[in-house]
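Take a careful look at the protein record below. Let me know whether the structure tokens fit the sequence:
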Amino acid sequence: MTHHEPSLARQTAFDEAKAKAFAGQMLTALNGAALALMASIGHRTWLFDEMAAASPCTSVELARRAKLAERYVREWLGVMVAARVVTYDPVAGTYTLPREHAAFLTREGSVKNLAATMQFPSVVSALEEEILARFHDGEGMHYHHYGRFHEVMGEVSYQTTVMPLVGSILPLVDGLTDRLEAGIDVADLGCGAGRALLLLAERFPRSRFSGIDLCEAAFAPAEAAAWSKGLRNLAFRSQDLSRGLDGEFDVLFAFDAIHDQADPQAVLRSAHKALRPGGVFLMVEFGASSRLENNLAHPIAPFLYMMSTMHCTPVSLGQGGQGLGAMWGMETATEMLERAGFANVTVTRLPHDPFNAYFVARP
């Protein structure tokens, strides 16, 4: 092609309808980003929870209940009404959060609080300049760069993992509850905020629990809580899991943690080696495919790839790892478990959790 020849793209007829539809798609995304930010604020200020308890209410009444400045509450309500989250009665000047919406936006007894998850975009977007630099130099990031990330991750995983842990997740392994009652050794790899272990240590006092994570700051609050509760069967330690595990265990957990490691394959080999005969490894990871084209119908695929770009890949690279990313997928995860020596791997989906896959692996 010479300098003056039109490119193939320019020779193709311009589809006005397609262009208009795409512009609408991007505007929808823009409004979605605005709603996500405001939903995060609504969650952190307890505005959704207060509205659920007081609807219908005026902006003055809501601000008073939430102990917030009315002018900001009124503008926030404008976003919620425009986004069709909250309804507005202009005659009475009152706002209502429908019960059907409140079920996905409040803390009260819910494992579906999407408002908590809405905090992630604002947390990682604070690092946009740093991530831009990483696009150029190819380097990584470290956990301490991410501010509230561990706090938010702990809150979200409390819903998806801790609340249903005893009733829905432990039963994936036949006889596990009975073994925990009798007393066994358990470790949580990449334990993060450690809330799952706090629950288990209280529920199963005869078993012994270890929380292992590279970032000591993540589990520090849980460690303090364990001491204040007098839980002498729970201990935490900071360790690079890629370098092997100290000790032997009957059960190992890893909740959304393996893909972030510097060397996930080495961690899985260490897990296999650390299990006693008859032991089991229960791993939770995003229930996506390893193939991009298979994820087009996934309900939150753009969000997951965004989180992988902004957090999971950089923190792995920052440890000198391969940057496996959050979307390594069920196929790759299964292959790596088998490569680590796990001869029996089953993958299950649970009704309460449409986004994650549950791997039960045995040597």
In short: The beta strands are 87-89, 94-96, 185-189, 208-213, 234-238, 249-255, 275-286, 344-350, 353-362. The chain has a mean pLDDT of 92. The first helix runs from residue 8 to 11.
